[in-house]
Automatic annotation (TrEMBL):
Keyword field contains Manganese: no
Protein name, entry field: ABC transporter ATP-binding protein
Entry-linked InterPro entries: AAA+_ATPase, ABC_transporter-like_ATP-bd, ABC_transporter-like_CS, ABC_transporter_ATP-bind, P-loop_NTPase
A GO term for molecular function: ATP hydrolysis activity
SMART domains: AAA
UniProt organism field: Nocardioides glacieisoli
Membrane listed as a keyword: yes
Domain ABC transporter: 15-232
PROSITE patterns linked: ABC_TRANSPORTER_1 (PS00211), ABC_TRANSPORTER_2 (PS50893)
Keywords: ATP-binding, Cell membrane, Membrane, Nucleotide-binding, Translocase, Transport
């Protein structure tokens, strides 16, 4: 079995994956000798075709793949938080109790309220999860993650179920939170524009390994109108084996870093 340790210190990379193999059956491997390093504070977006193993990699980093066959080495920091497409709030606990669930410190409530304030949910601490909109539930899930002050934030399509406008707001919020808390981030997404808007670096999985690994050199004000943005989109779509039909059928705008700067 692959080792999964919390040995990495703040001096080395936040994540180190070496020669990781994972398979669910004898038909073939999902991860086939994958290597990856993520630096502290680095925001990495993970793209790949459906079934390419993105969630499998994320679950390996989260330690959620016990019992899955495989070999290799996975090293992550002590404090890891995970956000999924659905908020996974406990329906029988109020919002603040969800955020602080499992925290043992005497100032847990105070920290929970502070986290709720940071994600724009001040005053909603006594609400039940079902009283929140989908976007608000994801905000609460982010607060629950960040209150633990993670060195690594793993996010598996956290905005996949949200409408386009809410996604823009969540992009702005996530970038702002990451600038403050500086966790390393691995964000699984199907959305190339989301990857370009949010990440410092984009990697593409294919055949169970990292096929493409590129830094985003667009600066902080990223606009879909920027020709460099369009070039990068075309490059990534080509890596994914998809034609860029952006000009033929304009997509709804996704969040821009100019918006995050303004917030
Ligand atoms: N628990 C499981 N049991 C059997 N096969 C699995 C299991 N989890 C994933 N797989 C298979 O492993 C492969 C990779 O799945 P994974 O969910 O990692 O892909 P993905 O890139 O995240 O896909 P998507 O973009 O569609 O969410 C798929 O072929 C999937 O069917």
């Amino acid at each position: 079995m692959a080792s999964h340790t919390g040995e990495l210190s703040t001096h080395g990379p936040a994540v180190r994956v070496q020669d990781l193999h994972r398979s669910f059956n004898e038909a073939g491997g999902v991860l086939n000798g994958l290597d990856l390093e993520i630096a502290p504070g680095e925001f990495v977006a993970l793209l790949g075709r459906s079934g390419s193993g993105k969630s499998t990699l994320l679950r390996s980093l989260a330690g959620l793949d016990r019992g899955v066959a495989g070999t290799g080495r996975v090293e992550v920091p002590e404090k890891v938080s995970v956000v999924f497409q659905d908020s996974r709030l406990l329906p029988w606990k109020r919002v603040l109790d969800n955020v602080t669930f499992g925290l043992r410190s005497s100032d847990a409530s105070e920290r929970g309220l502070q986290a709720l304030d940071e994600v724009g949910l001040a005053g909603r601490e006594k609400a039940w999860p079902h009283e929140l909109s989908g976007g608000e539930q994801q905000r609460a899930a982010l607060a629950r993650s960040l209150v633990r002050d993670p060195e690594l934030l793993l996010a598996d399509e956290p905005f996949g179920a949200l409408d386009a406008l809410t996604r823009i707001r969540m992009h702005t919020l996530l970038r702002k939170l990451c600038e403050v808390h500086r966790p390393a981030v691995l964000l699984v997404t199907h959305d190339v524009d989301e990857a370009i808007v949010l990440a410092d670096r984009v990697i593409v999985l294919d055949g169970g390994v990292v096929r493409h690994d590129a830094r985003i050199e667009l600066g902080t004000r990223r606009s879909q109108a920027d020709p460099a943005f369009a070039r990068l989109r075309a490059e990534l779509l080509a890596e994914l084996g998809v034609e860029d039909d952006h000009d033929a059928a304009p997509r709804p705008a996704v969040g821009r870093l100019s918006e995050r700067a303004a917030s």
